[in-house]
From TrEMBL:
This is Cytochrome P450. SUPFAM superfamilies: Cytochrome P450 (SSF48264). InterPro entries: Cyt_P450 (IPR001128), Cyt_P450_E_grp-IV (IPR002403), Cyt_P450_sf (IPR036396), Cytochrome_P450_monoxygenase (IPR050121). Heme binds at C463. Gene3D superfamilies: Cytochrome P450 (1.10.630.10). Keywords: Heme, Iron, Membrane, Metal-binding, Monooxygenase, Oxidoreductase, Transmembrane, Transmembrane helix. It comes from the Eukaryota. It holds the Pfam family p450. The lineage of its organism: Eukaryota, Fungi, Dikarya, Basidiomycota, Agaricomycotina. GO terms for cellular component: membrane. It comes from Mycena venus. Pathway: Secondary metabolite biosynthesis; terpenoid biosynthesis.
Amino acid sequence: MSLSGASATTPLTVALAGIVATIAISSFKRWTRTRKPYAFIPGPDPDSVAGYLLDLHNPDGLDWHYSMPEKYGHIARLKGGLFMADALYITDPAALNSILIKQQNWFPESTEFAGRVSKLTPLFYEVTRQLQSKLTAAVAGKPPGQVVEMLDYLTRTTLEIVGTAGIGHTFNSFDDKSKTFEEFHGAITTTIGRQAVPISTIPRVVEENETPCGCGEPLHPSLHFSGRRWPRAAIYVMRPVYLMLYKARQKVLEEGGSAALAETPAGGKDLMSSMIQANWDADEADKMPDDVVLANMGSIVHGGQETTSSSLARFLTIVAEDSDLQQKLRAELQEAKAKKAPGEDLDYVEIERLPLLDAVVREMLRVYAPVTFVWRQTTKDVLVPLTYPIRSATTGEEIKELLIEQGTAVYLGLGAANRSTAIWGPDAAEFKPERWLNRTQLEAKLPGAYSGMMTFLSGAKVCPGRIFAILEMKLILSVLLLAFSFDPISEPIDWQMGIAIEPRVHGREKEGIQVPVCVTTLSV
Ligand code: HEM
């Protein structure tokens, strides 16, 4: 029955199937056209059907990022795979300027704080002296060139600095048994370590979820962000600390007014106390809501810790490899110190004005930007101009303006833009501090807030901690270079992409992130 029925309806079935197929093909074509609006833009073929995401976040993918402008131009199409829309990878100066500055309202993100960085110099020194004595003790009585895992020391230093000078809180980071350091650092790294989440989204997640500290509703049982489950420990550990600090500052202000902040840890000079004080003094209409202040605390700690320790570790490997550069930097510092009274530290302006140290830090931040890329999503169709026109892969036409459609994910390649040969010249990927010593030759093409590089971004979302970070790094490096000399270990260090780029010893990757360096104390 079914066989004869089937055979009787065959022509009809075939006709119907033909109609359905035609409709399906034409809808599929329309769907692909609308879903793939950037098909004319050259870009890499993804390694998997999942599309570009695995390549974009691949820890071993630094070269994938850095080679993007050279291989595909300054706007590249990122193919979305089976179920995902295409995205764009952008390193074009005019497009970056448009996205980050001119039309930033349509590429949202935000939270901000203002710093009074020069006043923080004594706090930076206080913490850095602790680092110096710990390191001195670690190599004391041992032969010169003692191998020391420096990343751990630098991590402790940067967390302690961002704690004291950023939010007025000590993690007792130099105490090897400090539970608060272990817990908090663990929480930071589990939150951002491998999860490739934009830095500034974390505090919002922290903020949106209460903790069982007696100050709000219990933590949401299934905390998700971007399809990932957030480690609950991170939220449990961080949130109570921020809330406790905030409430303590408010209590001080309520009981003793602004002047009483001087009695709080860090003498009330930390960025957060300044912000809470400014908020306290502001007219009611201008006050920041509590949750914004709290979110800013999270941003400061997250934004300021791994980025800075990763950069400092990079610096040490550079000077360890290049003894000539190391000696020149030391000589510059010794000359500046010789002008000071014995035991007196270089101040903010003096540290800022050391030309070679400045050039090395700038070049390091350009070539080895700790944040490889940031992510944005358009909230409406936006037309962006291009410095380097795209040659359409389909028509060969030259495209000088690109329509980025609403909802498109755009990835701004900070590290790649910093190494584009079109922008920086044929030696763009080389570490050459001298390019900053003769600054008149450098014409800023990128809209980056710091020396025309994208390392700290620009526009409303520029890193508010950049001056803090640069002073912090220069100060730590100046103290270290005057007290110790550094030599490389025999194995090379490999760098992989995390939220900040992460070092591992070649062949010893299983030991985890580390930067062992041979350290010798210098006789003063
Ligand atoms: C070498 C060191 C640093 C680098 C390369 C760096 C880079 C960046 C970048 C690229 C962003 C933008 C992220 C995005 O929009 O998704 C950012 C945001 C931020 N950074 Fe930094 N940063 C550094 C150090 C610091 C320090 C020391 C602090 C604090 C004292 C800090 C505080 C922040 C904050 C609060 C944000 C979030 C701003 C917002 O959400 O609007 N950063 N940083």
